[in-house]
Structure formats: C-alpha cells, structure tokens
Amino acid sequence: MNVNDFDLICRILKERSGLTLAKDKAYLLESRLLPVARKWKFANFEELARVVRTKPDEGLLRDITEAMTTNESFFFRDIKPFDQFREIVLPHMLAARAQQKSIRIWSAACSSGQEPYSLAMILSEQAAKLQGWRIEIIATDLSTEILARAREGMYSQFEVQRGLPIQLLVKYFTQNGDRWQINKPIRDKVSFRPFNLLQPMSPLGRFDVVFCRNVLIYFDQATKGKVLEGIASQMADDGFLYLGGAETVLGVTERFQLIQGQRGIYGVQTAKPGLKTAAAG
Ligand SMILES: C[S@@+](CC[C@H](N)C(=O)[O-])C[C@H]1O[C@@H](n2cnc3c(N)ncnc32)[C@H](O)[C@@H]1O
User: At what angle do helices 26-39 and 58-67 cross, to 10 degrees?
Assistant: First the structure.
C-alpha cells in the first residue's frame, strides 16, 4: 500500500467516524479492507483506493468505515461498572426521579448489544422495585451491520461464556442449535438506532445515565473532547457517565468530574447529594 492511499483512507475514516490510525497500522487497513474490495469486485486494494479517489460512492465509503470499526464487546464487561450501576446509580436515580418515575439510559457505542442487554437484565432482576417506572434504554452505534446483529440478540457459545453469569444465561436466553438468543422481553427493553457520535446529539434528547465505553480510545484528543462536550450537553445535571477502563476525561474536558471513590463513573460538574465528585472534595 502506498503512502498516498493510506493517507486517503485515513482521512475518510477520521472524517466519517473519528477513527485515527497510526502509520504502523497499514497492515490492519489492508486486511480489513480486502473483504470490502472483494464485495465491490475490485481486483485489489489499489483499485479500491483509486475508485475512492476518483468517483467515491456513498455505499462504498460506508462499507470502508464500518469495516474499520472494532466491535468487540461482552456481557457485563469489566463487571464493576455494572455492579456500580445496580448498587449506586440505580438507587440514586430511583430516589431522585421518584416524582417523574422515568429514567433514560444511553448506550452510546453499543456494538452487538451486550452492554445494553446487560443493563436490561439488571433492570429485569429489579422488576419489583421498578413497577410503574418508565425506563428507556437507547442503544446506538455507527455500524448498521452491527446494529442488525444487536437487534437479533443471537450470540455464539463463546460470547455467552464471556462475562455472563450462568443463571442469567439460563433465565434470559433460548438455545438455538449452537447459538443463544436473548429472549424477546429483554430485547424489547432496548431501542437500537444508528447514530454517529460525531453528529449533533440534541435529537437524542436528555439522558440520566450514559455508557460511552471503549470507543473514545479510537479518537484523537480533539475528537474525544468534542464527543464528551456533546454528551455533557445531553445529560441531566445529576446524570452519570461511564467510560471504559482505559478512558478518562482528564486532560480532555472539564465538563465531567470523577465521582469520588467510584472509578470510571463521572458526574456533570455539580456534585450529587450523597455522592461527591472528586473536585468537590
Ligand atoms: C469496541 S466497541 C465497544 C462496545 C461496548 N461499548 C463495550 O464497551 O463493550 C466500539 C464500538 O464503537 C462504534 N463506533 C466507532 N466509531 C463510532 C462513532 N463515530 N459513532 C458511533 N459509534 C462508533 C463501533 O462501531 C463499535 O461497535
């Protein structure tokens, strides 16, 4: 792959998804784009790059962008964030929203659905407490292909063995050959929509809890900052933001502060009653 072709594709990826690729990732670009070249009946990567340069087709650009996303996810990823959700965030929201009886949760780069379905199972386990409440889980991703998988909720044996407690597998999934489908009542708790984090976020409405995990790592500092500012503007004043284990707001934005003693959860500037942000001391 020549440098010009690499730079061209990198520019497109950066514009369309925020993904920043280091120069030493040319092998990754080529291996992920070969199936796209085949699908579009190009002889090789060079021909794909030539078409992108001379007469770019929206469908081709979309396929290139989607092929470069990393969709790895698993149920109850890192465990702790989901324990915190069950034990701290949900009780806080149930007390704070006792009047409205409504909570909106956003899984902002949901991939194949394990993150929003983990939340839906937690809510289902607490069904008795949530009677009369309207709890929305909006799950979005850039990739329409991965969203189709998420909606279907069908997982391999390997995927259900990664992080999902066996009693939840038995309770909420149905075996279908060597695959497992999450049951309809849980699927129905999640509303999947395509959404690019680089777009204006106001059409999504306001959220009480946002999971934006393991996607900012692919962006440069400026893009991380813009995405986090956008999320902050969509959050309730006492809302909670979750980031992935390798992600932080430090040095990126001042709109969020770590909730003291709760690694990985951030509050929007103001301290919450009973839950202090680190800056508030
Ligand atoms: C590694 S997965 C993270 C899944 C899940 N949040 C988790 O932590 O397990 C990253 C996801 O981000 C999505 N993504 C990448 N760029 C995006 C963008 N600009 N807007 C929305 N989603 C994006 C990818 O399609 C991919 O499904």
Answer: 140
Residue 281 pLDDT more than 50? no
State both tokens at 225: 């900052």
pTM: predicted TM-score of the whole model, two decimal places: 0.94
**Do the Cβ atoms of 3 and 24 come closer than 8 Å?**
no
> Does residue 72's CB lie within 6 angstroms of at least one atom of ligand 1?
yes
Mutating to test ligand 1, I would choose from 215, 216, 219, 220 the residue with most ligand atoms within 8 A of its C-beta, which is 215
Q: Which H helix or E strand runs over 14?
A: helix 3-17
Render pLDDT for 141-173 as a digit per residue (tens, 0 to 9): 999 999 999 999 999 999 999 999 999 999 999
Q: Where are the beta strands (DSSP E) in the chain?
A: 102-107, 134-141, 154-156, 173-176, 179-182, 190-194, 207-212, 235-243, 256-258, 265-268
Within its chain, how far is the Cα of 40 from the centroid?
Answer: 28
Assigned token pair, 149:
């998988």
> What separation in Å is there between the alpha carbon of 109 and the centre of ligand 1?
4
Which of 69, 110, 195 most suits a substitution to test ligand 1, by most atoms within 8 Å of the C-beta? 69
Place of tokens 């009369």: 132
